[in-house]
Specification:
Fibronectin type-III domain-containing protein; Ig-like_fold; 5-stranded antiparallel β-sheet; alpha+beta
């Protein structure tokens, strides 16, 4: 059955729960419920993922206590602090725990893989079944030195995490699958899994260890024979083709079964079972021991990690868990000759970055056309700068080994880091591309390419491939010609920060873009980056305040805004103290660009796809390897990093969005949230997408986080079959390992590529393989380890399969190849303590500082040699003599301390990871307080609890200093004590310093103090008072208020405001710690209601202080739609509507010169109107309407014109004729008692050219025409009556203008037709035209004539095949 069809059976599973399986499960799913019987569960249950995380949590807490932050020796953290709370307590609230959680999850994922991989899930030596104790120990013992050499010799922490997770799986399973607990053991088997360990008293092959249960199903009590040897259950189930690999239960009748509904041996003698995997009797017959088994598994995990800590020392232990605050500065750079100028710039700028930041790791990976390296990886900035300054250019070909250089960087760069690649050309090693993109995505490393060449294509890998790389990883492609590295220095410097989260990423944009950006309360600051040329970019905050991102000068002068980079092709601007809420970004460009918004925040997330695997031996969520499959139902595993500290209240949806931000699909979610939980998602689309999660924080603001890797669903999977035992070898060895390629798409040939970071991979066979739909094929990778290979070297191996039919169906799998040690050394170094230490009488907390001690220890390892020397506690080492890594000589260690240090381990670690110690143990220091913490809190009290080590003197009392002020004294003679501190202030931070006092030799002696702190609970705060408007502007108002008389419970103030009786703008709320606030983005001329609420730390709110404020007056806009209606001879009505702009500023309107201030409410459907009367008939009027503000500011006017009507039925004797007709210069004027126009003006033209007529509305006309002998003006009134006037006139001739646009419209053998336009000047004077037709071939006028003033004509009688020129001109008659 294919992955797609199988996945379709699992649609019902939603939510999450926990069981001592591989992962948490949802018990309501039928496939799970039938196996686990959740209704029978007796209590909480634990899965191996939880056990792994809990064991790590306990060890990291103790590690932080043993190695406190610098300058904070009294560091303490509650015993129940979560992983992220531990991290933030140690590194600060602004530090991001994402990389740390990713390391923890990687270890847990490797643990889970033991139940997912066919290589491990059926292996009794991995699962702890079938009495395979020797096999379990053998594999654990061999894996241990590989893990330590990967850490100590190669800093190969990703490989070490995978080995660690697999080992923890077996160690934890021991307590659930064996009879260790049933035989009466209450502690862990400390040396189990370490080299040299062997089991004592295990059951013989024929020894009876179990008796039959009352029923083979369900609960089984007392079925383990007391005094029998150690045993584990046999487990056989339907494993398909792998069933034969399971060990059958012997037929002796006395062996134990694993038991439960999946176990086929439960019905074989002895019936029943012993597993303690869950708290459900139908799955775990010994369910009642589940809690004890889980606790021992946690303790064993904690202990195993502590052994590793001793073996690798604190610094490498930190790196194993990515426990550091900053990131890496990782650079790959092209060193061919054309990059000379860039290299010089990079040298200087990298020096600036190193001088002004503190990366945890520095990585430099040079490459050119012939080779790569040497790679520099160091934590020493001086070593790094020496390597950078030593760079020089080589002459070379056009193409470079870009992808090999990136491979070097990825192999040495921690997860969740930025890698910056400098080049000016394409890559010649494009066969590595797919694997490197997959590896970068897996490591969540953002790759940014600074490309200084021309944008060209056609190489083995070219610009499009570079774009794909940066898009897939969330980086940037910065084309910059021969770039100025100064412009990107700041961005490179930011790459060493570890707390950056992605809010949105948009790629391949063009034209206009409008995107909302939610800025939630967990964000300290955020940054907008635009890569590419844009013509406009306006960023608007929640108040409506706009920031022009194109205006660097304005941005630089704006408080709270920092311009990081501002060039035509790259802009990066940071807001250092942002307002919380939804911002808006609008951009425009005629070219392609991208934008990204990221921020420093306590809240981030990790996401991985998983599939529910309900099959035996243990149902679980199986993590997806490589790219997920299209059209498949998955469960998205969400690790919500920092959700407690960020006060997240819900996650309500998941979004798939494409490169441009367009939503592909959305999955709603209403379930619970935790550190880790699962959401069933929709079938994956066939297109690439980003994943965004959305939810809310306590303030009510929305948060959004984007996973920056571009998800590329495919139809091919690649699985690693090979184990480290298969592919790891000694120098000189050749090893092979298999990979399984599965095709869920069209039948096709597949190309197979392989690469590894250290060159041990010699090839993958076959290199091409035909795979049918829903079928698989196995390919084999071959590794050769040179004789000079360094022990402990670890190479990252990536195998990629690509369909030649569906070319986007590409997938990869990653594993690790390692060089084993030549010599098998299972013996620890020898340590001899030369000096006896005696603190008799001083091992009490009160007097231990009164005596010092010194000891000398001799360490030696004569086999593989000493690799490391350390001590715990480390502070007492005063001298180490004769130590160099690998020495087989004696090494002398001097350790000094006071008698307050009674237990010291001086530790030597050899090359194989074996640990030898000199243990100085004078007993536990007596009277030492530990685990002091607040057990519970109330409004005015804190109940403290603590433990104290046993002491042999009389306890006098405890003194408790509260807030460095009040000291209380009380007694408690128990080793576990509590004390309720009362009469505290509510809602306040309480600090406690607890000091024990003892009677020593009759004197009162104070011991070392312990410290704790917590917050009392909130009570509802009281309201602020005296809210006032300090000053105002058109769009701002400054407020202030007084804090309540008792401000103890006030954490912040919440300021909410909204306009009164104005629905065109929304209100908003913000929080502030100040008693002053500026309202921004307001409308002028409006009254706002303001509510100021006191907030307690937990969010309790006081009744609001309510008061009103007013923005200042402003000029209203122009009235709209002014029209005139019902015009008579003496009145008219003016109609208009409010302005669009600042209509709220209008107090009234002014018409003409007469203000009308009473009109504020529309009388008819939003229209105002006013009647104007006592007007003159037949009169032109211009009517203006303008708005007036409350303080008399007049806005712009809107004007319309009209003429009043004639007087109705005038007297006939007044009609008469049109009178007073005169000519003055070139104007004709006349008068009439009738209203203006229309008039008919008739000109009688001399020389018999007829009459010309003009219709005019006014009582004048310009005379710019030839001579006329008379003019008549005629008027007809509304009653049909005529009036006229006549006047003789003689006007001088005026020369007309030149005709325009002469053109030939048709041509025949003997005729040509033409057209032209009237002159632009004095066209009325052009009474005739002359048309000349000239024969060009015979230079004489062929024809000339005078025509009437028409604009077209036809000339015939022309000669064929002859060139003619046409001319036309205007003329007037010749007198």
């Amino acid at each position: 059955m294919s992955l797609v069809s199988t996945a379709a059976l699992w649609l019902m599973l939603v939510g999450a729960a926990q069981a001592f399986l591989a992962t948490p499960l949802n018990y309501s799913d039928p496939d799970v419920a039938n196996i686990l019987c959740p209704d029978q569960m007796s209590g909480p249950t634990r899965d191996q993922k939880w056990i792994t995380r809990e064991g790590i949590r306990r060890r990291i807490r103790q590690f932080f206590l043993d190695y406190p932050p610098p300058n904070e020796p009294s560091f303490n953290v509650p015993t129940d602090a979560s992983l992220t709370e531990l991290y933030h307590a140690y590194y600060g609230e602004a530090a991001s725990a994402t990389r740390f959680i990713k390391a923890v999850n990687t270890i847990a994922k490797a643990n889970i893989n033991a139940d997912s991989s066919d290589t491990f899930r059926f292996d009794k030596d991995i699962q702890g079944d079938a009495e395979s104790f020797a096999g379990m120990q053998d594999k654990l013992g061999k894996r241990y030195p590989r893990m330590l050499t990967a850490i100590n010799l190669n800093d190969a922490f990703p490989a070490a995490r995978e080995l660690l997770g697999l080992s923890l799986h077996t160690i934890q399973k021991f307590y659930a699958h064996s009879t260790w607990i049933e035989l009466g053991n209450t502690g862990i088997l400390e040396d189990f899994g370490l080299p040299g360990f062997s089991f004592d008293d295990i059951a013989e092959p024929t020894e009876d260890v179990c008796t039959p249960c009352a029923s083979p199903d369900g609960e089984c009590q007392s079925n383990v024979i007391s005094g029998a040897g150690l045993s584990s259950g046999y487990f056989v189930y339907n494993a398909g083709p792998n069933t034969g690999s399971l060990t059958p239960k012997p037929n002796t009748g006395g062996k134990c079964s694993h038991g439960g509904v999946l176990d086929q041996t439960k019905d074989e003698p002895a019936e029943g079972g012993i597993n303690k995997d869950t708290s459900s009797p139908c799955f775990s017959p010994h369910y009642y021991l589940h809690e004890e088994a889980a606790e021992l598994a946690v303790q064993a995990t904690d202990h195993y990690l502590n052994v590793i800590l001793d073996a690798v020392a604190p610094m490498k232990f930190r790196h194993l868990f990515d426990l550091y605050n900053s990131s890496a500065l990782s650079i790959t750079i092209d060193t061919t000759g054309s990059m000379g100028g860039e290299i010089d710039s990079v040298k200087w700028q990298v020096g600036e970055i190193v001088a002004n930041s503190a990366p945890e790791v520095y990585v430099l990976a040079p490459f050119n056309d012939a080779e790569t390296g040497p790679v520099t990886k160091t934590s020493d900035p001086d070593v790094f700068m020496d390597a950078v300054n030593a760079l020089y250019t080589y002459s070379g070909s056009a193409e470079e080994m870009f992808w090999t250089g990136l491979s070097d960087a990825l192999a040495n760069t921690p997860d969740y880091s930025d890698i910056f690649s400098f080049t000016d050309n394409g890559g010649s090693d494009g066969d590595l591309m797919e694997g490197m993109i997959a590896l970068a995505v897996q490591k969540h490393c953002k790759v940014t390419i600074i490309y200084s060449g021309s944008l060209k294509q056609g190489y083995i890998s070219d610009i499009e491939d570079y774009h794909r790389l940066v898009d897939s990883t969330g980086g940037l492609f910065i084309p910059s010609g021969k770039f100025d590295v100064n412009d990107i220095t700041a961005i490179m410097g930011e790459g060493v920060q570890s707390s950056v989260v992605d809010i949105t990423i948009l790629k391949e944009l063009s034209g206009k873009t409008n995107v909302d950006i939610p800025i939630d309360n967990s964000i300290f600051d955020f940054e907008v980056r635009i890569a590419g040329d844009v013509s406009s970019a306006i960023f608007t905050d929640i108040t409506g305040t706009e920031y022009d991102l194109m205006d660097s000068t304005g941005l630089n002068s704006t408080a709270g805004v920092e311009v990081i980079v501002h060039t035509p092709s790259l802009k990066a601007i940071r807001w250092t103290n942002p307002r919380y809420g939804t911002w808006n970004l609008q951009t425009d460009s005629s070219s392609t660009y991208s934008l990204a918004v990221n921020g420093n925040s306590t809240l981030s997330w990790l996401g991985d796809f998983s599939i529910l695997d309900p099959s035996p031996p243990h149902p679980h969520y199986r993590p997806v390897v490589g790219n997920p499959i299209t059209n498949t139902y998955y469960y998205l595993e969400i690790s919500l990093v920092g959700y407690l500290e960020s006060k997240v209240v819900d996650v309500n949806r998941i979004q798939y969005v494409d490169r441009t931000g367009v939503e592909i699909s959305e999955i709603e979610y209403s379930g619970d949230i935790d550190d880790t939980f699962y959401i069933r998602v929709e079938p994956l689309p066939e297109t690439q997408f980003y994943i965004k999660i959305w939810g809310h924080v306590q303030s009510g603001n929305e948060f959004s986080r984007l996973m920056s890797v571009l998800i590329s669903p495919v139809q091919t999977t690649v699985d690693v079959i090979a184990t480290s035992s298969d592919i790891c070898g000694l120098p000189g060895d050749t090893k092979t390992g298999d990979f399984l390629i599965t095709n869920h798409g069209l039948s096709a040939d597949f190309e197979i590529f392989g690469t590894d970071s250290l060159g041990f991979l010699t090839g993958v066979t076959p290199t091409s393989v035909w795979i049918e739909n829903n079928s698989s094929a196995t390919v084999t990778a071959t590794f050769y380890y040179p004789t000079n290979a360094t022990e402990g070297d670890v190479s990252t191996v990536t195998v990629t399969a690509k369909s030649l039919v569906q070319t986007t169906s590409v997938n990869s799998a990653t594993t690790y190849a390692c060089v084993l040690a030549e010599v098998t050394d299972i013996d620890p170094p020898i340590c001899v303590s030369v000096d006896a230490v005696n603190c008799t009488g001083y091992t009490i907390n009160a007097v231990c500082n009164d005596k010092n001690w010194t000891t000398t220890a001799i360490l030696q390892d004569t086999q593989s040699g000493l690799f490391g020397v350390s001590a715990n506690p480390s502070a007492g080492i005063s001298d180490i003599v004769n130590f160099t890594p690998g020495t087989t000589n004696e090494v002398t260690v001097t350790y000094e301390s006071t008698c307050c240090t009674t237990q010291v381990d001086i530790i030597g670690t050899d090359q194989q990871g074996n640990v030898g110690k000199c243990a100085i143990d004078m007993g536990v220091l007596g009277g030492l307080i530990y685990d002091l913490e607040a057990e519970s809190v109330g409004l005015t009290w804190v109940n403290l609890k603590w433990k104290i080590t046993a002491y042999n003197v009389e306890m006098h009392l405890y003194s408790l200093l509260i807030n460095n002020d009040l000291t209380l004294q009380f007694k408690c003679n128990d080793l576990s004590c509590t004390y309720n501190v009362t009469m505290l202030e509510p809602c306040s931070h309480q600090e406690f310093e607890l000091t024990p006092h003892f009677y020593v030799n009759g004197d009162d002696k104070a011991g070392a103090a312990a410290f704790a702190d917590d917050y009392t609970l909130d009570t509802e705060p009281t309201s602020p008072t005296n809210g006032v408007q300090v000053d105002e502007g058109n769009t701002t108002v400054n407020l202030s208020w007084d804090a309540p008389a008792s401000a103890k419970c006030i954490f912040k103030y919440k300021v909410c405001y909204s306009p009164i009786d104005f629905n065109e703008t929304n209100g908003l709320c913000e929080q502030t710690t100040s008693t002053e606030y500026t309202m921004q983005g307001l409308e002028p001329c409006l009254e706002y209601e303001v509510q100021v609420t006191s907030l307690s730390p937990s969010g309790l709110a006081s009744p609001p202080l309510v008061f009103n404020v007013q923005t200042s007056d402003a000029m209203p806009g122009e009235p709209r739609n002014v029209t005139l209606q019902d015009v008579t001879e003496e009145s008219l009505f003016v109609w208009w509507q409010d302005p669009i702009e600042r209509k709220q500023c209008v107090l009234g309107y002014q018409i003409g010169h007469f203000p009308i201030l009473s009109l504020r409410k529309p009388s008819v459907d939003g229209w105002y109107h006013e009647e104007l009367f006592e007007l003159d008939p037949c009169t032109n009027y211009s009517v203006t309407v303008s708005a007036l503000s409350k303080t008399g500011i007049e806005g712009p006017t809107s004007m319309v014109k009209t003429i009043t009507d004639e007087s109705e039925n005038p007297e006939m004797d007044n009609l008469g004729k049109i009178s007073s007709m005169i000519i003055y210069e070139d104007m004709l004027y006349w008068d009439t008692v009738l209203c203006i126009g229309p008039f008919l003006v008739k000109f009688a033209v001399k020389f018999g050219f007829g009459e010309l007529f003009f219709h005019v509305l006014s009582t004048n006309l310009t005379l710019n025409s030839p001579s006329y002998h008379s003019v008549s003006v005629i008027k007809k009134d509304d009653y049909g009556r005529l009036s006229s006037a006549y006047i003789p006139v003689n006007i001088l001739n005026i020369i007309p203008g030149e005709p325009k646009n002469l053109r030939i419209t048709s041509i025949t053998k003997a005729c040509m037709s033409y057209e032209y336009d009237a002159p632009a000047s004095n066209p009325q004077c052009s009474l005739e035209h002359e048309v000349d037709v000239v024969n060009i071939d015979a230079p004489h006028r062929a024809k000339a004539r005078t025509s009437d003033p028409f604009a077209s004509g036809t000339e015939c009688g022309l000669d064929g095949c002859t060139n003619y020129k046409f001319k036309v001109r205007s003329s007037i008659p010749v007198f």
